Amino acid sequence: MLAHSLFFYFFSTIAVFSATMVIVSRNTVYSVFFLILVFITISILFIMIGAEFLGMIMLIVYVGAVSVLFLFVVMMLNITEQIKSKFKRKNLIKNISVGSIVGIIIFSELLVVIGGWKYKGTFFPLSNKGTNLDLTNTHALGNILYTEYIHLFQISGMILLIAMIGAITLTFSKRDNVKRQNYFNQIQREKTSSVSLIEVESGKGIKLDD
Amino acid sequence: MTYFNIFFGEIYKIIFLLLPILVSIALIVWLDRRVWAFVQKRKGPNVVGPFGLLQTIADALKYIFKEIIVPASANKTIFVLAPIITLTLALIGWAVIPFSNEMVLANINVGILYLFAISSLSVYGIIMGGWASNSKYPFLGAIRSAAQMVSYEVSIGIIIINVLLCVGSLNLNKIVLAQQNVWFIFPLFPMFIVFFISSLAETNRPPFDLPEAESELVAGYQTEYSGMMYAMFWLGEYANILLLCALGTVLFLGGWLSPIDIYPFSALPGIFWMIFKILGLFILFSLVKAIVPRYRFDQLMRLGWKIFLPFSLIWVVLTASFLFFLDMLPTIG
Predict the structure, then answer these.
(1) pLDDT of res. B289
(2) Residue at A64 is within a domain
(3) How far is B125 from chain A (nearest CA, A)?
(4) Does residue A137 lie in a domain region?
(5) CATH number of the domain enclosing A20
(6) Which residues of A touch B150 (CB under 8 A)?
(7) What are the DSSP calls for B212-269, one per residue?
(8) Can you give the residue ranges of every domain in chain B?
(9) Whole-number Å distance between alpha carbons of B184 and B150
């Protein structure tokens, strides 16, 4: 048990340290890399408490997909210019006030959720489906998600789908003056219609109607 | 204390898994070049050692003694980290690959998810290398590669769901054991084809080697790398290819199971069949490299998003409804 808690403190120290570095570091790309480190250590902590499915999903979704997109955007920024420019005091007060409001909201939400955890059993009678210890936790999760919470699960899926379609329609703009290739035309092109042999007399040019 | 005993016992096993893999990567590079040469009516590497078998070792020695050049304007930490991450991620995937019913380092419940997570992480080595080089071609190569790998991962994930529907477990051993009656390549043949092509794209192999297309991008994300750091990218790439061959073997070709359950075949140990099948898939990989011309990038994206993704989604619905209406859904156990 000692070794287990040693590992726990080791990983949680890394998680806390890199979470601070996400905010502190001046280089935005470093911030994203520290964010990735946070995700990885969190998924290790999930695995350590036996929730291996959640840990792996965390790795696949957050590290494998979300952070790649973050990196994509951030890498396009001009990092050297950003580091050189002085931190502006004018914005500092504004940033801190907005940031602390968001922080307080999240903190109070956490308080409500964790405080309510104690009384969860009295409001929502829990089923015993998930507590069967012989099942792997993938099966246990599936047993609950797709039976009792199927409607909530479907609704959250729908919301994500709508958000995705919304994001695509917002950024999609039909541009003119863009040459697009038509695959069928490209494949169907034949020698007779695209190659022609022309004899040119020496010393004279030739004009093609093209 | 038992925790630490287990820990050191595992390290012993890990070394005995890693050494054969590193050696086989060296041999696989040789095999790749030989097959490639065979198709093009050349001889290929045939000078160093018997049949040129030691060519890769000679190359590796050359790389070790070459100077490592770090560009002055590169971001040094990330520049050095990138090849290390590529090689590490390519090697740690092997922890869950079962070579026979007992020969597996970590027989975990979510083995397939672990492999999928590892292969989705391997994009970071390339992005980091491309960005840290602080130069145009590597950066373009990295962006291309990231877009390519992220899009083909989606279709690989959905193909894996097809197989999981037939198995009912995420454990790689159980996936192999579920194929005792029939290998999944037969009922899910179109998915095997899609998986094969997606894994070509996932490992940046020709015809999808656009991240390092030499006619457009010099060498893509590897342009600024030299010496051992280049060799590490190269090793990582081949380790990844082998890993995806192993994944294909486990998912579709019945892993360590022998093709026919008759005496001379079934007497051979499972590890033999596993290696045999991985090699077979790998030779297919190198044949494709030799005979197919390179794709254009927009064609690549179109293939991934507009053809493979809808096709494999439809196949998920088909598989699920087939299993459901014929009452063949696997039971939880």
Answers:
(1) 86
(2) yes
(3) 11
(4) no
(5) 1.20.120.1200
(6) 65, 68
(7) G-HHHHTTGGGTT--HHHHHHHHHHHHHHHHHHHHHHHHHHS-TT--SS-SHHHHTS-
(8) 69-325
(9) 25
B4 has a chain A CB within 8 A of its CB: yes
Pick from A46, A49, A71, A70: nearest CA to A58: A46
Tell me if ipTM is over 0.90: no
The one-digit pLDDT tens for each residue of chain A (210 residues) are 777 888 889 999 999 999 998 888 877 888 888 999 999 999 999 988 888 888 888 888 888 888 888 888 787 776 666 666 655 556 677 778 888 999 999 999 988 888 777 766 665 555 555 465 667 788 888 888 888 888 999 999 999 999 999 998 988 877 777 777 777 887 788 888 888 888 888 888 777 766
Phi, psi of B21 (to 5 degrees): -65, -45
In a domain, A25, yes or no: yes
Q: What chain A residue is nearest to B303 in terms of C-alpha separation?
A: A183
Q: How far is B311 from chain A (nearest CA, A)?
A: 19
CB–CB contact A71 B109 (8 Å): no
| Chain B residues touching A59 at Cβ < 8 A | 117, 120-121
From the list B197, B183, B173, the residue with the least C-alpha distance to B281 is: B197
Six-digit token pair at A93? 């007060």
User: What pTM was estimated for this model as a whole?
Assistant: 0.83
Contact between residue B174 and residue B112 where contact means Cβ atoms under 8 Å apart:
no
B143: nearest CA partner in chain A: A72
- pLDDT for the residue numbered A120: 65
* Whole-angstrom distance, CA of residue A33 vs CA of residue A27: 10
- Whether chain A has a CB inside 8 Å of the CB on B79: the answer is no
- Phi/psi for B70 (5° steps) reads -105, 120
Q: How is residue B46 written in tokens?
A: 């045939």
pLDDT digits (tens, 9 = 90+) for B91-103: 888 888 888 887 7
Contact A57 B113 (CB under 8 A): yes
Q: What is the pLDDT of residue A61?
A: 87
Return the residue of B nearest to A77 by Cα: B131
Residue B117 to chain A, least CA–CA distance (Å): 5
Does A52 sit within 8 Å of B109, measured CB to CB?
Answer: yes
**DSSP state letter for B327:** T
Among the partner residues B78, B120, B124, nearest to A60 by beta-carbon distance: B120
Residue A65: which domain range? 7-85
Does a structural domain hold residue A159? no
Dist. CA B86–CA B63, nearest whole Å: 17
Number of domains in chain A: 1
Least confident segment among B9-13, B46-50, B216-220, B234-238? B216-220
Q: Which pLDDT value is given to residue B110?
A: 86
CB contact under 8 A, A135 and B114: no
Residues B255, B175: contact at Cβ < 8 Å? yes
